[in-house]
Amino acid sequence: MSLREIHTEIIRPTRSEIAALSRLPVASIVDALGKTGALSYCLKLQTPGLVLCGSVVTALGPDVTVRRAAIDLAQPGDIVVVAAGGGKERSCFGGVTATHMQSRGITGVLVDGMVRDVAELRRIAFPTVARGTTPLNYDYPADRHGGAVNVAVLIDGVRIAPGDVVVGDEDGAVVVPRDQVATVVARARTAMTVEAEKWWSRRGQSFGAVQQLADCGYKII
Question: Of 22, 42, 90, 173, which is most buried, counting CB atoms within 10 Å of its CB?
Answer without folding.
Answer: 173
